[in-house]
Amino acid sequence: MFETTPLKIVAVAAGLSSPSSTRLLADRLAGAARERLAAGQDRRVEVEVVELRDLAVDIANHLVTGFPSAGLRKALDAVTGADGLIAVTPVFTASYSGLFKSFFDLVDNTALTGKPVVIAATGGTPRHSLVLEHAMRPLFAYLRAVVLPTSVYAASEDWGSQGDEYTEGLPSRIRRAGGELASAVTGRTVSGATRVPTLDDGEDAVVPFAQQLAGLRTG
Q1: Which residue ranges does the record assign to the NADPH-dependent FMN reductase-like domain (predicted)?
Q2: What is the mean pLDDT of residues 81-110?
Q3: In contact, 140 and 173? CB cutoff 8 Å
Q4: Which residues contact 112 (CB under 8 A, 6 or more apart)?
Q5: 22-26, 56-60, 146-150, 206-210: which range is least confident on average?
Q6: Distance in angstroms (rounded) separating the CA atoms of residues 56 and 188
Q7: Hey, what domains does the chain have and what are their CATH numbers?
Q8: Which of 35-39, 148-152, 210-214 has the lowest mean pLDDT?
Q9: According to the model, what pLDDT value does residue 1 have?
Q10: Coil, helix or strand for 152?
Q11: Percent helix / strand / coil, the chain, rounded to 5
Q12: Is residue 153 a contact partner of residue 142, using CB atoms and an 8 Å limit?
């Protein structure tokens, strides 16, 4: 029997296009965390994705007026009330996007205290992967969140790749990060839930990026 109060995972996606690789990565990370949580305990698991592109005008208005719209307030409440948070941004000019930063500027600097967070980013080239360490990790450290060890960067070439003998592929990194978030949310030690699956564990099949992105289209 499930407990009455579900565990809630919230993913914030700051992609501007539709469909978006940033939203796709947010969905994959949330799915990995939900799968691990569902397998490890009896509480229901709810996942909510906050698309910042839909709130861009409301975010700008709030920065100017100090008053959030109902939709923006709902998004902020979801983020601050989550048991675990996933934050994903596209890389703009070697850092997180302005929309991403503007949204988290509206989060009270104590509201994420102790909350486990997976940080992730998307970009066109692997050269921008350090944005996770020089920009995103310090941002959430300032907000007093617990930033989990595994961060996930997805360059265009990472989609549909399984990695090689020296480098983990994107699916493995997603599962590792999702496992760490699930462990942190339920109070288990992160090290006990982060073994990287091998091909023998049923590694994801290689799916071309265009096909993955097409799956996000509606209607």
Answers
A1: 8-159
A2: 96
A3: no
A4: 79, 80, 85, 140, 143, 144, 145
A5: 206-210
A6: 36
A7: 7-195+205-212 (3.40.50.360)
A8: 210-214
A9: 47
A10: strand
A11: 45, 20, 35
A12: no
